[in-house]
Amino acid sequence: MAGNNVDPQKIDQKLEDTRTEVEEMKSLLEKEKRNHVTLLNKLKMHDNSTQVTIQNLQKRLDELEKDQQLVLNQLLDEERSHIVATEELKTFLVNPADDITCSICLCSWESTGPHCVASLPCGHIFGMSCIQQCVLRTQLCPQCRAPVCYCDILCHPPS
């Protein structure tokens, strides 16, 4: 039994050292768990924020696409109106009616020059110089009172 020289004090010390090491490892593990939970929570918050941003951007994109479609439809309506007015004027110029005078000044239109035939999107026709002055003053068609802009006036010289 002399070969079994086991010092109980050394064993106790080794056991105590091992316990201390295990406690330190547990403490480090708990610290890492807390760090992991903190990072996970931050990641979830960032993900939620990103999702809200994506939803807001998608909503804005949908609104812009809707507005774009509305403007496109308005432009198409205006184009159709101008085409109809132009066709009516072409027909009128080829086969003029009995009344070929400007309803503003009651003078006949000129084939060229400042009092040539001009129309508005509503289809009414006038002498160019008369309708320009009228629209600058009122921004309305003098016959139907439809709102118009100076840029809406179309000149129709003979073809």
Please outline the helices and strands.
Elements lengths: L7 H87 L22 E3 L5 E3 H11 L15 E2 L4
Antiparallel strand pairs: 1-2, 1-3
GO cellular component, one term: nucleus
Keywords: Coiled coil, Metal-binding, Zinc, Zinc-finger
Organism: Drosophila madeirensis (Fruit fly)
Written description of the protein model:
The protein is mainly alpha-helical and 159 residues long. The chain is built from two helices and three strands. The chain has a three-stranded antiparallel β-sheet. A hairpin with a 5-residue loop joins strand 1 and strand 2. The longest helix is centred in the first third of the chain and has 87 residues.
Q: Could you write a compact summary of the structure shown?
A:
The protein contains two helices and three strands. It has 159 residues and is mainly alpha-helical.
Shape: rod-shaped
Number of strands: 3
**DSSP strand (E) fraction?**
5-15%
Alpha carbon gyration radius: 44 Å
* Sheet of most strands: 3 strands, antiparallel
Largest sheet strand order: 2-1-3
- Mean pLDDT over all positions: 87
Number of helices: 2
Descriptive tags:
159 residues; mainly alpha; three-stranded antiparallel beta sheet; 2 helices; 3 strands
